[in-house]
Amino acid sequence: MRNKIVLWGTDAADERILVALELKIDENKVMIYTFSEALATDDFYQQMMENWRNDKEEPVVFPEGHQSFSRELSITESILPEEIKVERTDLIQRAQTEWHFVVLSSKLSEAYRAELKELEEKLASLKDYDKEIWSNLKNFWGKVQNQMRDRTLLREHADEIKARTNKAFDALKNLRSKMDDEFRDQSKDNMQRFSEAVEDVEKRIKENTHLNKIFDELKRLQKDLRGTTFTKEHRNKLWQRIDNAFKDVKEKRFGDRAGGDGNNSGGGNSPLD
To answer: Cβ neighbours of residue 231 under 8 Å, at least 6 residues apart?
Structure first.
């Protein structure tokens, strides 16, 4: 989608002129330049079509005597004044429609860039994963996707925002991965510590000594387990071992009378509740 077009037309005196239009996005205006047929030499016309229209680095010097003025970009009014008639009216109508879209997309993308920059600055200061920033980034990307679906964002604007958003998501994913690794390491250490304690209890149950004291120790282990960091796998394994230990203690204390109610710890239907 071009922000500059060049075409032939006529002025108020019905003289043939070269007309050049340039969209000024930030100002929501269109600059209009006109060149008499005498000024619009073949060489100058080629420069306008190849260099100026395509925004090439090589500058195009406008000849003295050209006319220039600006007009507001309007939905209802033509971007050309009545006195200028062009050969390609379809080109003007298409430019007017497309340029409104360009201006809207530019304003939206500017707002989204500002919002994304704020999120990026918060992310840059993070040392640990932050669930709130993850949620805010997801909500932000959801808004951008809605604009993309509604086709109110230019592809180039959407692609830029998407690339920056993906980079922010990747940074948060790395922090979350680091947190998960630390969580698993902590769970592993806790698993070893609790396993040693449960193993000691299991050994004393087999020796059939101080069962009342062991029962109290199991209740304490069960309570401590609830407030300790574990992966689901580690926690379930320990629960099961403690549950089995409760059953063994009750069986040794009460024999057949211990079975039937499943109330191993005296605090619910099972140590998991």
So the answer is: 183, 184, 187
